[in-house]
């Protein structure tokens, strides 16, 4: 099913920013940067605030007029799913499980038991990559499709609801869901259990804030070493507390007034819809490489092209190349390419090179906003990267990841400020050397220093040559 395309708030905000920038530019060119920069900052922050519905329309809660709520469990199936299903059966409570595809494929009997006991299942991506919304449109679509097929093969049903990992969204997700006929279903009551790493008084955090119509977010997964009995006791107390508050727990489909899944049919259909490999795959790889070169060589390109072609000519050529390497116009949804497109358009319209020179500072502002906003989520960005290597992070390692996130925030603030000062008060060659070489070197140096500090402090050594060398230098650790 392909749905009719409608502009999102992101599209409307972009048009409004350009419309506001035009008259401001007539007063003073610098004023035009205010609405354009504001739009870029909002684009960077929006993935962390899905309730804005900025990129993707989503379902957050049901009618507030009925004393009903729905309970959802993310991240399963897991070793505690069976005990959870027994608890729900004793209490006579329906739930919706947003399952991870690779876990469903590994334990199909668990998914069959979920459906067999009358519960609903939704799509929570194939691998639960916490950075999925920073990936390409192709990757996001493949993650959703693989999870759909894994659930269909395991239980004979196909979800209609998709919940992105960590609740983050981006413009690519909007396109994928529209093409696959899925809805984005999020939540309105979130106890911040950090994927069951914070289960103490879970009941209090839910019952204190829950109200009629809420979609409650819990997790069907426990970190290693976390007692299942304590968590199940908290879940049971939540169910009892909801009854005492006069709230009935109903299926998510009933609360939202639409089906969450349907019987599977034509399991091979979505596989046939997947983007072809071979020549198309090679073209995609070439496009990604060209985009990477465009980003890395942007400062050098500006320094060389502006003296030769002038501001408008250089901006027009670079804008044409940007659209060429990004494929379709809607592929410019990622914050990075939106930023460069807006700045190049402004530079061409106003014949002002400063918009082109502002790009590195804007990128640092976008990254700063993303890192800072992630501190309000269960998994700050640095912790997400860490869990790609080590999933069972200790409490002191989690605190360290939060500290490192602050270090990166400080770096982006300083790096963006230096780039802005060079753009305004230094020769263009100085700006090009710093933003096109020195700043990249500083990023690499910060990565290297943090890597060494982390290994020396926590002893999580892998088997690669660098880790073996560090292990000899700072002492033995734990092999990953």
Could you characterize the architecture of this molecule?
With 480 residues, the protein is α/β, with parallel strands linked by helices. It has 2 domains: 9-48 and 280-479, no CATH class; 58-273, TIM Barrel, CATH 3.20.20. 59% of the residues lie in helices and 8% in strands. Strands 2, 3, 4, 8 and 9 form a 5-stranded parallel β-sheet that branches. Strands 1-7-6 form a 3-stranded parallel β-sheet, with no helix packed on it. Strands 5-10 form a two-stranded antiparallel ribbon. The longest helix has 31 residues, at 395-425. The protein is globular, with a radius of gyration of 25 Å.
Layout of secondary structure:
Elements: H1 9-27, H2 33-45, E1 58-59, E2 68-74, H3 81-91, E3 96-99, H4 101-106, H5 108-116, E4 120-123, H6 137-155, E5 157-159, E6 161-162, H7 171-180, E7 183-185, H8 202-209, E8 215-219, H9 228-244, E9 248-249, H10 252-256, E10 261-263, H11 269-273, H12 279-296, H13 298-325, H14 335-350, H15 353-357, H16 359-374, H17 381-387, H18 395-425, H19 428-458, E11 460-461, H20 465-474, E12 478-479
Helix pairs in contact: 1-2, 2-14, 2-16, 5-6, 6-7, 8-9, 12-13, 13-14, 13-19, 14-16, 16-18, 17-18, 18-19
């Amino acid at each position: 099913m392909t749905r009719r395309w409608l502009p999102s708030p992101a599209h409307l905000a972009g048009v409004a920013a350009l419309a506001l920038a035009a008259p401001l530019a007539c007063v003073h060119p610098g004023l035009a940067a205010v609405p354009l920069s504001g739009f870029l900052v909002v684009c960077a922050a929006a993935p962390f605030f899905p309730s804005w519905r900025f990129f993707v329309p989503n379902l957050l809660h049901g009618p507030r007029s009925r004393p009903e709520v729905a309970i959802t469990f993310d991240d399963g199936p897991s070793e505690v799913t069976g005990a959870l299903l027994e608890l729900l059966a004793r209490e006579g409570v329906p739930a919706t499980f947003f399952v991870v595809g690779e876990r469903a494929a590994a334990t199909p009997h668990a998914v069959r038991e979920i459906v067999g006991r009358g519960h609903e299942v939704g799509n929570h991506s194939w691998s639960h990559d916490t950075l999925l919304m920073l990936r390409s449109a192709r990757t996001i679509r493949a993650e959703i499709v693989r999870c759909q097929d894994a659930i269909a093969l395991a239980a004979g049903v196909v979800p209609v609801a998709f919940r992105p990992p960590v609740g983050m969204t981006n413009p690519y997700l909007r396109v994928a869901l529209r093409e696959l006929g899925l809805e984005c279903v999020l939540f309105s009551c979130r106890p911040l259990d950090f994927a069951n790493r914070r289960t103490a008084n879970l009941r209090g955090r839910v019952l204190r804030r829950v109200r009629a119509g809420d979609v409650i977010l819990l997790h069907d997964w426990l970190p290693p070493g976390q007692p299942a009995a304590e968590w199940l006791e908290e879940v049971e107390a939540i169910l009892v507390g909801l009854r005492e508050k006069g709230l009935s727990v109903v299926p998510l489909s009933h609360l939202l007034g639409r089906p969450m899944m349907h019987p599977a049919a034509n399991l091979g259909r979505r596989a046939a819809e997947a983007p072809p490999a071979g020549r198309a795959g090679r073209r995609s790889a070439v496009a990604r490489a060209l985009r990477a070169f465009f980003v890395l060589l942007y400062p050098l390109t500006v320094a060389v092209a502006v003296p030769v072609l002038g501001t408008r000519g250089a901006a027009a050529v670079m804008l044409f190349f940007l659209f060429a390497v990004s494929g379709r116009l809607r592929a410019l949804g990622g914050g990075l390419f939106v930023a460069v497109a807006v700045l190049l358009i402004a530079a061409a319209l106003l014949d002002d090179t400063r918009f082109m020179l502002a790009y590195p500072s804007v990128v640092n502002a976008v990254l700063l906003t993303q890192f800072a906003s992630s501190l309000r989520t269960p998994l700050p960005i640095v912790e997400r990267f860490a869990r790609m290597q080590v999933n069972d992070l200790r409490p002191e390692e989690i605190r360290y990841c939060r500290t490192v996130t602050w270090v990166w925030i400080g770096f982006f603030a300083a790096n963006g400020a230096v780039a802005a000062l060079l753009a305004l008060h230094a020769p263009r060659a100085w700006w090009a050397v710093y933003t096109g070489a020195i700043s990249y070197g500083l990023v690499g140096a910060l990565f290297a220093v943090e890597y060494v500090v982390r290994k020396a402090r926590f002893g999580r050594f892998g088997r690669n040559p660098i880790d073996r060398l560090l292990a000899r230098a700072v002492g033995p650790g734990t092999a990953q």
